[in-house]
Amino acid sequence: MKKTLLFSMLFAASAVFTSAFAGERATTFYPLQTLMAANKTPTPIPNGVKIENNVVVSWPAALIPEDRQIVLPEGIVGIGYQAFAETPLRNIVLPSTLRTISKEAFFASALQAIVIPEGVETLGEAAFSNCHSLIAASLPSTIKNMGNNMFMYCGKLNNVQLKEGLTAIGESAFFKCTALANIALPKSLESIGDGAFNGCSALEEITIPNGVTEIGNNVFDECSFLQKVNFPASVTKIGRSAFHNCVGLSNVSLPEGLKTIDGLAFYGCTSLFEITTPEGLELLGASAFEDCTSLASVTLRKGFTVLNQKAFKGCKALQQITLPEGVEELKPFVFQNCTALTEVTFPSTLKNIGLNALVNCSSLSKVTCDATTPPALKGNVFNKTPNGKTLVVPENSIAQYQATQYWGAPSFATIVTGINSLEPAQDQKAGVYTLQGVRLGTKAIWPSLPKGLYVVGNKKVVK
């Protein structure tokens, strides 16, 4: 009777999951605690099942009971390598004496739910990998390290309970768990392995616990529904492709202590519209924000000295960019195909600009370079930009820029020295004139004037 009740609960859980999964995303939480009241009568051990030193070494698929359920007796301390792999086992009740679940112990089995009891300390690599029917799992506080590939390809896994005490999630632990919409990471967590949540396309939001210092490579790669990430102050590195193609991610607040944004970190985050890098950032990697096609606002603070190749390539909504003081080099293609970009400001520290850094920035109208000596250009970095651009350079540097290939004509129609905006004037009656001497009004009219070159206070000023 009790076994029948357990089977009914599991069947109902599966039905709840199927119903939820048929919609846009699976969101129903399955109450794992109901499994704890299941039948505790041990299953008779049939001939052909191998148990050595209280470790289940193998339980052949042909010997799984008809109801596809097993209750292991007290005294069992371990489950061996592939002991239940590729069997029709649907549910198993584990004894309180269990201490070890070995590598691939339940690989590709028909498990629907698993509750690992307190006391289990070792959970081997890929123990539940490819369990395509698994919908719910609970891990105890005694497990400190979750092995690599633990729930890889568990496509129906919807509810996971991780207890305080867990310090590490292994590589690809939840790889392609496409129904996993929510997961609470314990405060005790210190590390998240590469690719841990790669391909979790239903995941909506994640809060990284304080204590985690690195977001590994590909950790949230292809999490297409991920909309919000809550970073703690402890994170200093975001790894390569960490949020690659997270197309639903719209806003990210980077922690102030962040030192590294590795290559491709936010590549293809097509909903991301704003980003501010913290002061002290040391590395902004290649293609870090490439093809973030909605990225309209970028604030870069002092820290890094090199802006790596393709960092903002294809950011078609970006209109203005100011590089902070301290930047010395722009690598090739850094702003390629930023077709809405109208204004760029380079710092006084800039020394080199790489090949095609601004190629096909088809709306570029104004470049300000605060370097007194023209930065070295690798070819025509302004290729396929309008020839009518204005270049603003420091006082007494105009002649140098005019004489330097690709800084002068025809890349730029006008090279001037001036300011980008006006400070509040002491004399609001001071006039603003066209280059032809036509008075347009007082300085109060400045905000309403279109972009161009004007005479203000006997000086040429570009707006």
TrEMBL record:
<feature type="signal peptide">
    <location>
        <begin position="1"/>
        <end position="22"/>
    </location>
</feature>
<dbReference type="Pfam" id="PF13306">
    <property type="entry name" value="LRR_5"/>
</dbReference>
<protein>
    <recommendedName>
        <fullName>Leucine-rich repeat domain-containing protein</fullName>
    </recommendedName>
</protein>
<keyword id="KW-0732">Signal</keyword>
<dbReference type="InterPro" id="IPR053139">
    <property type="entry name" value="Surface_bspA-like"/>
</dbReference>
<dbReference type="InterPro" id="IPR026906">
    <property type="entry name" value="LRR_5"/>
</dbReference>
<dbReference type="InterPro" id="IPR032675">
    <property type="entry name" value="LRR_dom_sf"/>
</dbReference>
